[in-house]
Amino acid sequence: MAGQAEGETAQALMERSDVSNVLLLAPSLGGQGTDVCLDLLTETPPERTNVLSVTFTDTPQEWVDRWTARTGTPVRGGIVAVGQVDASVDGESWAVKTVENPSDLTGIGIELSELLSGMAKAGDEDEHIVFCFDGVTSLLQYADLQRAFRFLHVVTGRVKTVGGIGHYHLDPEAHDTQTLATLKGLFDAVIEVEDDGTWTITQ
Q1: What percent of the chain clears pLDDT 90, i.e. is strictly above it?
Q2: Mapping DSSP to helix (H, G, I), strand (E, B) and coil, where does residue 5 land?
Q3: Where residue 88 sits, what CATH number does that domain have?
Q4: Dist. CA 7–CA 133, nearest whole Å
Q5: What's the average model confidence in pLDDT over 139-162?
Q6: Omega of the bond leading into 135 within 30 degrees of 0 (cis)
Q7: Is residue 198 assigned to a domain?
Q8: Which pLDDT value is given to residue 195?
Q9: CA–CA separation, 160 vs 19, rounded Å?
């Protein structure tokens, strides 16, 4: 399927019942990936949305500000800030966990799992869990491909188990063809975003 505008991305994927985890291929520079990310996270109204993010680059407050500017306050929000010692946000709806060492994939997985489990247990059938992993390119700076693959295999499995929809940022220009081919096998769909903002859904 091919799209003409970024805003159609979330709707197209939400109509596919077989999609739990999506690989988002977009340039690191520019806002194209960010726009699609927010489209994917804001398909449902904030009062029915549990949103969770793992971020290696943005501070939690930057992430919350971007979300709030687009949609408002979620039912529950969670952020795992990687590589940050101390982080906090304004707003009672948000829980923030920090993992100081970006190479500590076990620690990242534990914090992520706790937040996911909490949302799944506290939510009702009208609520949705959406997840952003920003990003795989950063992860591969701290872990080799085999270790990163095993980690992402576990994470995608947990997202699927709780009935969530997750997407995972990766800059295709930063990795070789073999790396891309290996990682694509983890995901139900792949979104490729061009420099001009057009996108294609594959796989």
Answers
A1: 68
A2: coil
A3: 3.40.50.11570
A4: 20
A5: 97
A6: yes
A7: yes
A8: 77
A9: 9
Q: What length does the chain have?
A: 203
Query: Token pair of 124, please?
Result: 């009702």
Question: Is residue 64, in this structure, part of any structural domain at all?
Answer: yes
Q: Is the pLDDT of residue 14 over 90?
A: no
The answer to whether residue 125 sits within a structural domain is yes
Cα(134)–Cα(170) distance, rounded to whole angstroms?
A: 8
Predicted TM-score (pTM) of the model is 0.91
Buried/exposed code over 139-162 (b: 16+ C-beta within 10 A; e: otherwise)? bbebbeeeebbebbeebbebbeeb
| Pairing between β-strand 76-82 and β-strand 94-99 as defined by DSSP bridges | parallel
How many domains does the structure of the chain reveal?
Answer: 1
Per-residue pLDDT band at 12 (split at 50, 70, 90): low
**In this predicted model, what pLDDT tens digit does every residue of 37-59 receive, in sequence order?**
888 898 889 999 999 999 999 99
Place of tokens 């903002």: 197
